[in-house]
Amino acid sequence: MSTQANYAAWMLNTKEPFIIKEAPYPKPSVDDLVIQSKAVAITQDDRYYQEGNTMIYKEIPIPIPNILGHDVAGIVCEVGTNVTKFKPGDRVMAHVLHMHTGKPEHGAFQNYVLAHQNQTAIVPDNIELTDSAAVPLALSTVTNSLYELMKLKLPTPEKSPEIHGAVLVWGGATSVGANAIQIAKISGYKVITTASPRNAEYLKTIGADVVIDYNDKNVEQHIIDAIGDLPYAGAWDPIVNDSSLRTEMSVADRVKSVDGVKHIILGLPYPGSPPEGYHIELAYGFPFERPISKYMYHQFITEAMQNGTFKIVPHVKFVGDSLNDLTDAVANQANARCEKYVVKI
Ligand SMILES: NC(=O)c1ccc[n+]([C@@H]2O[C@H](COP(=O)([O-])OP(=O)(O)OC[C@H]3O[C@@H](n4cnc5c(N)ncnc54)[C@H](OP(=O)(O)O)[C@@H]3O)[C@@H](O)[C@H]2O)c1
User: Which residue, 6, 62, 17, is CA-closest to 329?
Assistant: First the structure.
């Protein structure tokens, strides 16, 4: 058991700068690892919470004071008694559970972070450790949205040679959208996405087959044309606005589905009551208790990164190099455009 001093960026109140002060060195339970952080990524959720919007997912209130942060990359310091896949000294990335448990020891914005083994992966030697902080939350969210809820065929570390159907990703330039594009393509789907025209070429390089401007007045027809005769698996929509929802429901009405269900999977709660007749579900990116999480973190992602099938997307932008930089990094996250903000620790 280590007795290292641990410092954290504490959110003592919303709408105020984080305060850097000591936090307890975390104690791993049986399935946990303690990770010495080398980099953390900034997510929209961190910004929502820092801005005071702590009820965005309604059923997941976060107590204050707290330590925010979903994504960490670093070095394993110690492991719980059930952990056999990781050992001290390993380079890892993890999606930590702070928004699930509400506990400060599960927030990424500190030197020593507690992570669950099922949402932790080895970072292969060919990948910069600090870059890998951009991956885990998006990986967990894609796991839940595309594979648990939409029920796509699982990806393997080698790209599928077959095409199983078509999938729509609304907002392909978001972090969770770009990762969905890439992983859905690996698992054998034609990927149709919406984004600003400036991102179209980049999104095609990571797996999008068709990129449509989300402001195009004919966006629905372009999506229908792109689906063609393929069976349609559904839509993954992290944006959730009038335009995206209206289009996704109209598309669902007009195409044939993979399994009789045309899924509409949302990254944010449906505003109001969802209409009858559509299979609308809210993604919740914490699949760590289920076997699929172990599959994605332990059997898919490391090998796919190592062999180049999976690349880190969208672009990583380093916006700081210490805990002191986190307040500005979170506040400025709204400016991220097809890029993931990462702070080195
Ligand atoms: N439920 C869950 O488990 C879960 C998990 C993670 C995230 N989320 C949610 O998913 C959303 C995305 O988060 P993120 O961190 O991945 O986003 P992000 O990386 O900050 O997204 C930035 C991108 O959003 C795109 N965008 C903005 N308005 C758009 C619109 N009207 N239509 C399509 N794209 C638009 C922009 O694309 P262009 O540059 O192309 O304009 C921009 O590049 C957030 O609302 C977040 O809360 C949910």
Answer: 17
* Ligand 1 site, residue 18, Cβ cutoff 6 A: no
130 and 144 part of one domain: no
SS (H, E, C) 129-177: CCHHHHCHHHHHHHHHHHHHHCCCCCCCCCCCCCCCEEEEEECCCCHHH
Strand 91-95 to 120-122 pairing? antiparallel
Domain that holds residue 45: 7-135+313-344
Residues 240, 113, single domain; the answer is: no
Which ligand 1 atom lies nearest to the CA of residue 241? Answer: 31
Q: Where are the alpha helices (DSSP H) in 154-264?
A: 175-186, 200-205, 219-227, 242-254
Burial category of 192 from C-beta neighbours within 10 Å (exposed 0-12, middle 13-18, buried 19 and up) = buried
pLDDT tens digits, 311-333: 999 999 999 999 999 999 999 99
Whether 247 lines ligand 1, by a CB cut-off of 6 Å, is: no
Residues 170 and 222 both lie in one domain: yes
Q: Enter the tokens of residue 117.
A: 């083994």
Residue 256 pLDDT grade (very low, low, confident, very high; cuts 50, 70, 90): confident
Residues 99 and 157 occupy one common structural domain: no
Secondary structure letter of residue 300 according to DSSP: I
- The helix/strand count (H/E) of the chain reads as 10, 15
In this prediction, residue 20 carries a pLDDT of 98
Number of domains forming the structure of the chain: 2
